[in-house]
Amino acid sequence: MRLLIVEDDPVLSDGLRVGLGLSGFTADAVGTLADARAALRDSDFAGVVLDVMLPDGLGTTLLAEMRAAGQTLPVLLLTARDRVRDRVEGLDAGADDHLGKPFDLDELAARLRAMLRRHQGRARPLLHWNGIDLDPAALTATRDGAALRLSRREFAILHALVDQPGRILSRAQLEERLYGWQEDVESNTVEVHVHHLRAKLGRDVIQTVRGVGYRVAGAA
Amino acid sequence: MSIRLRLIVVLTLVTGVLWMSAVLWIAGSTRAQVERVLDARLAESANMVSSLISDQRIAVEAEGPVRVPMPATTDLSRQLSCQIWSLRGDLIGASQGAPDARMALTEGFSTTVIDGVPWRVYAVRNQQLGVRVMVGDRVDMRDGLVAGVVSGLLWPAAVLFPLLAGLIWLSVGRGLAPLAQLEAALRARRPDDLRPLPDARDPREIRPVRRALNRLFQQLDQIRRTERDFTAFAAHELKTPLAGLRIQAQVARRATDAATRDRALDAIAVSVDRSDRMVRQLLELAAIDHESAPSGPLDPAALIAEIVQEAQAQASAAQVRLVVRAGPLDLIHAPRVLMHSALRNLVENAIQHSPPGGQVTVSASRGASGLCLAVTDQGPGIAPEDRHRVTRRFWRGRAATGQGSGLGLAIVAAAVAHLGARLDLDAPDGGQTVRITLPVPSQRS
């Protein structure tokens, strides 16, 4: 799950990027509204973590712009003043959730997972597909009750495919989910991870659609 | 003393004095009128008696006084007395109630005191009979007449005066009603309600008061808004580093590799330093805002040397060279705390915005407009469109390094304002110069 972090404080921004990475997300960070607009225009994100006070304006302004443009991308607001009025203002501006600073990394990750889940119209936190269970919170996977040992990247690819069974994801889309801007992507990494996944799950689990990308079978 | 009471006292006193003057004036003119009329009557009566005795209608006997019948219809008339004296000096006749003593020695009008009672007398000589006819009335009777007129004026006054006072009370109350309404409107306000007073059809005298109040409300509202903004910013600026600390701590605990953990720990150290600086600056700002700094003799060169020394560690860490260009300067008389705050924050700011290997120059000179302290860096400079807001609290430039609190120049501006000095921002070719010009009245030591 690739997230955009809009936070101008370098220490917090860095902590969010690394911490959310440790929690199974891929996160990119920008520090201004202008950069956030550019990032949202150019890349595909599953959600946004948005600070309210930014050097060039209010996060809620960006939020209102997004909502006015019909973007339903889920947004979690980070607020410094965690008063009822601030929370109400944030939610009314179109935020899906909010968290007052300072916050716990685990709570942020859990709220983000819940937010993304709701956005996809799922209520259950676990994903099931053909006997495979994925727990995005714990980053663990089981097949028929037996634990699968997956790396973080492998889990992320499986998560992305199982999330919408039948949908074909291109290599570029998968790469985008896996890597932030600051990470170097080797040309064949997605293939390598898919190869490892097939070795662990069986050849036919992930189908290659030649020239397009990968998918898992549509029957859930 | 309330306006109402004051108005009532003034109005009542003025009305009373006017009334009394009117009464005195009327009393005076009445007296003159009464004198004239009564004198005419005296003369007329005397002439009439004289002609009656000439016609022999009243016998004047030589032996003794006769009764002169006087018409006795009113009190006033009864007090009219008549004497007839022979030219030799014998009393020939007198009216009833007339005094025994001779009422007049001369002819015409005269005033005589008989038995302690003053009389007004008119005497006429009847040459034919060789007598003098004298007709007189008592002066106190005349006074009584005037007193009657005056008391006729005073009694209604005594009754009407309280009535008038009551009317004044009521009309003053009515006249002051707009004030009372304004007062009620103000009293009914919640303390945090700083909206302008609603427009009402005020009398012209109240309008300036309402306008002044509205202006005051507006200023207060502005101050409160600024304070609220400040609180919001402060909350954000203080809680964000805390959030950073907490999350970096969690990253450090959870990191599986040493590099990630070390980065997180470094970030924590940086964040603690920044938070420390932020708290220090907030306290500094509060001190500048709320405390009065004592003035004293100050050596600008020594102050610069001291600040350069304090900032040396920061400069070394940022690989910035600090250069001082200042000759020996005269002592100035200024609050040391403010001068130190202003210059220290300027230098720190300049170092923060300097590229590694850059140079920060602190210069001081004495010019026509006063003492000029300038700090120049080789950083990106302040964009012209941002110049008006760099001194806002918590404002950070778009090219912010992320180290600043957004308070440095706000502190400088606050200190400069308290010093009565001027703050100028120039961007020479590359870099930024911030100049403080402190007016120095005359050479003082």
UniProtKB/TrEMBL annotation, chain A:
InterPro entries for this protein: CheY-like_superfamily, OmpR/PhoB-type_DNA-bd, Sig_transdc_resp-reg_receiver, WalR-like, WH-like_DNA-bd_sf
Cellular compartments per GO CC: cytosol; protein-DNA complex
SUPFAM superfamilies registered for this protein in UniProt: CheY-like
Gene3D superfamilies noted in UniProt: 3.40.50.2300, Winged helix-like DNA-binding domain superfamily/Winged helix DNA-binding domain
CDD domains listed in its UniProt record: REC_OmpR_PmrA-like, trans_reg_C
One Gene Ontology term from the biological process aspect of the record: regulation of DNA-templated transcription
Modified residues annotated as 4-aspartylphosphate in this record: D51
Record domain Response regulatory: where: 2-116
SMART domains: REC, Trans_reg_C
OmpR/PhoB-type domain ranges (all copies): 124-218
Residue ranges: DNA binding: 124-218
Compartments in which it is found: Cytoplasm
Domain of life: Bacteria
Record keywords, A-Z: Cytoplasm, DNA-binding, Phosphoprotein, Transcription, Transcription regulation, Two-component regulatory system
Record GO terms (molecular function): phosphorelay response regulator activity; transcription cis-regulatory region binding
UniProt-recorded name of the protein: Response regulator
